[in-house]
Design a protein that fits this description.
The protein is an alpha/beta fold. The protein contains seven helices and seven strands. The longest helix has 16 residues. The protein has one domain: Rossmann fold, CATH 3.40.50.450. About 40% of the residues lie in helices and about 15% in strands. It is globular, with a radius of gyration of 16 Å. α1 links the parallel β1 and β2. It has a seven-stranded parallel sheet with strand order 4-3-2-1-5-6-7, with helices on both faces.
Length: about 200
Amino acid sequence: MATIKSLCVYCGSSPGRSEVYADAARALAGALVERNIRLVYGGAGIGIMGILADRVLQLGGEVIGVIPKALSHKEVAHANLSQIIVTASMHERKMRMAELSDGFIALPGGIGTLEELFEIWTWAQLGFHRKPCGVLNVAGYYDGLLAFLDHVLAEQFVSRRYHGLLMVETGPDALLERYVAFQAPEVKRWVEEGEI
């Protein structure tokens, strides 16, 4: 059983074209606060990012934002968080978010969200962490990506063991229940920390 005190959520700095994405962010916010789970996210006050953070705060939850100095104006750093951490680089941002979190969830977002999701999933494959990784597949947003990942599995560019490290659900409660029950599989660490 995993202890989940804080979760990192990757999501878009755009609201997307449908209100369903904002609704999903609010639903996830409610599920986090109900379970007393702190939100760790990219620190912006706009798009799905801002909607998620605002709702957690409205419900009395704790929110830590992590944003690189160079993006604090473009992504409009949220002004009312429990804590804001400003980093020197994107790499430092992602590392800090990972350190602060007991698991990772991707809501709908753009290429930045995808990059963050794939990096943290790769870190799990490499044995750099033993934390749950998942996707909230809101309104079929990730259907095409998930079909491609099944193709990658079928073509034997990823093993079933690593493919299975990415959990997928359509609602936050089902995903969070899986996170609490998560037991990381034994994964041989490919490289040691000093080697990278």
